[in-house]
Design goal:
Helices cover about 35% and strands about 15% of the residues. It has ten helices and nine strands. Strands 2, 3, 4, 5 and 6 form a five-stranded parallel β-sheet that branches. A two-stranded parallel sheet has the order 1-7. Strands 8-9 form a two-stranded antiparallel sheet.
């Protein structure tokens, strides 16, 4: 979580320009009108805390995602760009259980980031349904690709449902993500055979409503929680009660606080997950 500006900093044009620059490229364009409309949903006494939430958002656009994927691939000890200097076959696979999941988007971004978009690399990039016919062996490596691990539940469910069988026989199976919550990563590694590779890791201090988050006072947290409950009464702190302030340009994770992404007649999130 980035450090916000000091309390009661002016919500002036210079500050709004920083937000506009930070959030450029979101799937539903974030303009000044939408930022101002989002802030107006907060009472005057709470608007400073709301503005400081915008200061702290960790936004992952294409460039930042590309940097993470380049670093992630370079960190794999068995990988080498030259075929003759790596062992076995390598297959890069979206960790997607349905067409609407983020894995397919991340597969494309991974290819572009690592300059592997030419047709000569096509055989290395396959969809989950193609894994069985690949007949992978102990010397082969599978790299599953996704954007984020929050609670770890989605990954574990997908592993138990299909991926554990699809990669059976392969040597090492990595899950490469851009961002992982530490608790979620540990849970995935404890309950699956996946080796998680992440560029950025989130700790308890990244939970907006947690005791370890020192950027907001207890009173501010209570006030912000009230608005998050208006946005989503059942999961105000996001899925799994994660309380995160993470946004990807292709979609805001539902593990982030509800005030960021929930959109309905009583609340308009700045980063709607649909549309």
């Amino acid at each position: 979580m980035k450090a916000p500006r000091p309390h009661n900093s002016p919500i002036d044009q210079a500050r709004k320009d920083v937000w506009l620059q930070d959030f450029v490229g979101y799937r539903s364009a974030v303009n000044q009108g939408r930022i101002e409309a989002w802030l107006r949903q907060f009472a005057g006494k709470d608007r400073d805390a709301a503005a400081r939430v915008l200061d702290t958002i960790e936004f992952y656009g294409p460039d930042r995602i590309a940097q993470a994927y380049r670093a992630g691939l370079a960190a794999l000890p068995e990988w080498h760009p030259t075929v003759a200097q790596r062992t076995g076959r390598w297959r890069f696979v979206p960790m997607s259980s349905s067409p609407g999941d983020s894995g397919g988007t991340m597969l494309h971004q991974f290819r572009v980031a690592n300059k592997m978009s030419r047709s000569i690399y096509d055989k290395m990039f396959v969809f989950p349904s193609m894994l069985v016919e690949e007949e992978l062996g102990a010397e082969d490596t599978v790299v599953l690709l996704d954007d984020f691990i929050g609670t770890g539940k989605q990954v574990i469910d997908a592993w138990n449902l299909s991926f554990s069988e699809l990669v059976a026989g392969a040597g090492t199976v990595y899950l490469m993500v851009v961002v992982a919550r530490r608790r979620g990563r540990e849970k995935v590694q404890a309950e699956t055979e996946l080796v998680v590779q992440t560029a950025h890791e989130l700790n308890d201090s990244d939970d907006l409503f947690g005791d370890d988050c020192l950027h907001f006072t207890a009173d501010e947290k209570r006030a912000l929680k009230k608005y998050c409950k208006r946005a989503n009464r059942t999961e105000p702190a996001g899925f799994g009660n994660c309380g995160l302030l993470i946004v990807f340009s292709h979609r805001c994770p539902n593990d982030s606080v509800a005030a960021l992404h929930a959109s309905h007649s009583k609340w308009r999130g700045l980063f709607p997950r649909n549309g």
